Amino acid sequence: MIITIAHSKGGVGKSLLSWHLAIGMSVPIIDLDFQKTLVYTNNLRKINGYKSLKIIQPESPQSFVEFMDNWPEDKNIIIDVGGFDSNLNRAALYISDLIITPAVDRVTEMAGLYKFHQILEELSQKMKTHIKANILLNDVNPSAKDFSVIEDLVDNLKHFDLMDTIIAHRADFYRTMEEGKGVTELEKSKAKKEIKQLIKEIKKKG
Ligand SMILES: Nc1ncnc2c1ncn2[C@@H]1O[C@H](COP(=O)(O)OP(=O)(O)OP(=O)(O)O)[C@@H](O)[C@H]1O
Ligand SMILES: [Mg+2]
């Protein structure tokens, strides 16, 4: 299964979630992000003596498509897409089996989601298919209970579904990355529980 973490908006947690998922699921990552956040984190992982992740960085859209064409269907892989619109990122959206779109439940974030939805609509029309993204609430206040802003938006947009899992704002997510670790490698942590829950939901969808 090709799992793509995508949003045309930057800074929503794509790389952070890709990292913790890849470690939790023991799968490779394709890094399409120019900032190479995860290559850097993987170097920290090596320095700290942990077994490094496999990170693939395609040199061109062609080499990306070729690599994906040969990817075995029964093997999982995670794609971390850059926070902008491009042909490469659209190709990733088209070839993936599951798109996960991290989103923050704030009114100010809604314009970005509309824009991403528009991209999915254009791509669906062009490729004569119906592409769906699974909206994942991320970086939410741990005590928040009301997600009606995002629930209403997802209800009204045909290329979006809302995931059951909710990922809160937690220091464990970035502190572990600072030493190249994943939250699933912690002994006990709420962040670990959330990622485990997310992996369960991904497997159910696959
Ligand atoms: N659940 C979370 N808890 C705590 N911090 C978070 C969480 N999600 C994201 N962050 C923080 O938000 C910032 C942006 O995250 P990240 O770099 O993963 O976003 P991105 O979508 O990959 O951005 P870009 O599009 O620029 O690649 C980082 O500092 C990250 O540590
Ligand atoms: Mg990123």
Task: Give a quick precis of the structure.
The chain is an alpha/beta fold and 206 residues long.
Task: Draw up the topology in text.
Layout: E1 2-5, H1 14-25, E2 29-31, H2 37-47, E3 55-56, H3 61-69, E4 77-80, H4 87-95, E5 98-103, H5 110-127, E6 133-140, H6 148-156, E7 160-168, H7 171-178, H8 190-205
Parallel strand pairs: 1-4, 1-5, 2-3, 2-4, 5-6, 6-7
Helix pairs in contact: 1-8, 3-4
Bound molecules: adenosine-5'-triphosphate (ATP) and magnesium ion (MG).
Magnesium ion binds at residues 14-15, 33, 35, 37, 80.
* Cofactors, ions, other ligands: adenosine-5'-triphosphate, magnesium ion
How much β-strand is present in the residues? 15-25%
CATH superfamily: P-loop containing nucleotide triphosphate hydrolases
The poorly predicted ranges are: none
Q: How much helicity do the residues have? A: 40-55%
Largest sheet at a glance? 7 strands, parallel
How many beta-strand elements?
Answer: 7
Distance from first to last alpha carbon: 7 Å
Folded structure, characterized:
There is one protein chain. With 206 residues, the protein is of the alpha/beta class. It has a single domain (2-6, 10-205), classed as Rossmann fold (3-Layer(aba) Sandwich), CATH 3.40.50.300. 45% of the residues lie in helices and 17% in strands. Strand 2, helix 2 and strand 3 (55-56) form a beta-alpha-beta unit. It starts with a strand and ends with a helix. Residues 14-15, 33, 35, 37, 80 line the site of magnesium ion.
Question: Key features?
Answer:
206 residues; alpha/beta; Rossmann fold; 7 strands; binds magnesium ion
